[in-house]
């Protein structure tokens, strides 16, 4: 029960299942749970245990506001990315492969963390790569959206369940998460 352990748990949060995080968090005193990193950990757990908190963002092509989840009857793979992100570019072939296999079960959606001035570069990338799924812009609210969805780095993905019942972090480059996505079926 120390500040250092609270910080360590928050920093290593993605190494644990939701249940493990909750169990470990519950070992801390109320003072540590209310500390800066205790509250950040609580917010992170809330994202993983509550219904997905949808947001309206700007469609990069139509410039219209849209919710992240466009069809609540399907899964949604939410991918945070940017035009300047090399690892994000390397992920595109894998995402296209998964999209081709699972497009009837999963809606894919990009959220670009590009600054509004960089949107032409983002749209160019989407066109050159022939990305078939939607792409949304944070419209300059980069830090606000990163904080809302606890995005530490990119690429970063959430799998949102039908009816927005829950969201979980997935690392599509990991074999077990890729297999999980490939095995999803609609209820």
Taking the alpha carbons of the first and last residues, their distance comes to: 42 Å
Order of helices and strands: HHHHEEEHEHEHEEH
Task: Give the total of beta strands.
Answer: 7
Give the strand order of the largest sheet, numbering strands 1, 2, ... along the chain. Answer: 2-1-5-4-3-6-7
Portion in beta strands? 15-25%
How much is the average pLDDT? 93
Rg of Cα set: 17 Å
Biggest pleated-sheet summary: 7 strands, mixed
How many H/I helices? Answer: 8
Low-pLDDT stretches: none
> What structural class results from the helix and strand content?
alpha/beta
General form: globular
Q: Helix proportion of residues, in percent?
A: 40-55%
Report on this model:
Strand 6 and strand 7 form a beta hairpin. It contains 8 helices and 7 strands; from the N terminus they run ααααβββαβαβαββα. Strands 2-1-5-4-3-6-7 form a 7-stranded mixed beta sheet. It is globular, with a radius of gyration of 17 Å. The mean pLDDT is 93. The chain is α/β, with parallel strands linked by helices. It starts with a helix and ends in a 5-residue tail after the last helix. Helix 1 packs parallel to helix 4 and helix 2 packs antiparallel against helix 4.
Based on the model shown, name its key terms.
7 strands; seven-stranded mixed β-sheet; alpha/beta; 18% strand; 8 helices; 187 residues
A few lines on this structure:
With 187 residues, the protein is an alpha/beta fold. The protein contains eight helices and seven strands; from the N terminus they run H-H-H-H-E-E-E-H-E-H-E-H-E-E-H.
